[in-house]
Amino acid sequence: MQYICVTETTPISTRAADDLGPGPLAGMRVVELGQLVAAPYCGQLLGDLGAEVVKIEDPNGGDPMRQWGRQKPDGHSLWWSVVGRNKKSVCVDLRRPEGQDLVRRLVAQADVVVENFRPGTLERWGLGYDRLSADNPGLVLARITGFGQTGPYSGRAGYGSIGEAMGGLRYVVGDPSAPPSRVGIAIGDTLAAVFAAMGVMSALIERDRTGRGQIVDAAIYESVFAVMESLIADYEIGGQVRERSGSFLPDVAPSNVYPCADGTQVLLAANQDTVFRRLAKAMGEPGLATDPRYATHNARGARQAELDRRIAAWTATMPWERLDEICQEHGVPAGIMFRAPEMLADPHFRAREAIVRVAHPYFGDVPMQNVFPRLSRTPGEVKWAGPELGRHTDEVLTRLGVDAADVARLRREGVLR
């Protein structure tokens, strides 16, 4: 049983300026197909920047993200309030021919479709790109999967965790004395979503020149692999397999976690030559910057543990507040590990409005991250939190031209929620 949510659409070029909302993507129409993290986060990014995004939902419970993460006793998910923000929810049963026809009508006037099903799923529903683009040559279809649309692994189930492992990230995360660890967020899915969103923007710019859309093929493992720096060259040319190193990067020193007298753990990052000179002066040992053992990046990397012990002995003599004063005075990057309480209390977060509070019918005001990056003239906006399941069905279909009697009939027949 599969379902899809869709949006009423009119080409951007025919929409009146006063119909467009805020944000640089105002007027762009997106149909979001998929569930969990990858496609929904891509949709969130596009919606944050002003696109109209309408989301796929299963009428019998909706996207599983509605149940994931921290929940109130009534089952409402805080995570959904973030990843579902700025979206419209309309549910159509794709088991029915009427549902499939309705989706094709809607996509014919959309700018973008985002999906994260296994390759071939859309084709089985009669929603493959060949068919959709025949009615809408300018359509951009972003397809997010574990392994991509081609290749021997393309048909495999591919969750974000598997993509993180195959892309090389899982192996290098954690302490070397322990098995490979994970980052504490769904980083593989979110990286794929970011790359997919970047691909959508690029395809839309190209469409302005040619009038033609295209497929954006974003694989989770490739999105992770893309941020793995010189991992491959390190091995093939340098003869080194990058290993887990815990709180530091091998041969990059000093850049580690150091103790303070009050028990605070502080990050210092002074691996660049000029910054290390400032750190040496802050420590009251300016001669370290010209000492052949520490004067260059390679020399410091070769004596990384020795240098870290020396810095730790210095930081341990004072509380974090005093260390922070000294580091800021000398221009040395320093900071503590922030959790949610520190973020909510921090004056810099507050001054830049990095956290916004969004009205929610069950939670009251929900604090969440603002829209990033910040644009000076057409900034994005969080307009509403993740909506109730099927909340926008009547609005969307009525504006599409489906009359109230047909909406009622389709609802009675189970095609709509």
- Percentage of β-strand residues: 5-15%
Provide mean pLDDT, rounded.
88
Q: Point out poorly predicted stretches.
A: 1-19
Q: In percent, how helical is the residue content?
A: 25-40%
Report the C-alpha radius of gyration, rounded. 25 Å
Structural class: alpha/beta
Strand order of the largest sheet: 4-3-2-6-7-8
| Named CATH architecture of the largest domain | 3-Layer(aba) Sandwich
CATH class of the largest domain: Alpha Beta
Count of structural domains = 2
Task: Kindly state the number of beta strands.
Answer: 13
Distance between the termini: 14 Å
Shape category: elongated
Number of alpha- plus pi-helical segments: 18
Pfam families: CoA_transf_3
Organism: Tsukamurella soli
Protein name: CaiB/BaiF CoA-transferase family protein
Keywords: Transferase
Description:
The protein has 417 residues and is an alpha/beta fold. The protein folds into 2 domains: 282 residues, Crotonobetainyl-coa:carnitine coa-transferase, domain 1 (Rossmann fold); 84 residues, formyl-coa transferase, domain 3 (2-Layer Sandwich), CATH 3.30.1540. The chain contains 18 helices and 13 strands. The strands form 4 sheets. The protein has a 6-stranded parallel sheet with strand order 4-3-2-6-7-8. A 3-stranded antiparallel sheet has the order 9-10-11, with helices on one face. Strands 1-5 form a two-stranded antiparallel sheet. A hairpin with a 5-residue loop joins strand 9 and strand 10. The protein is elongated and about 80 Å long. The N terminus is likely disordered.
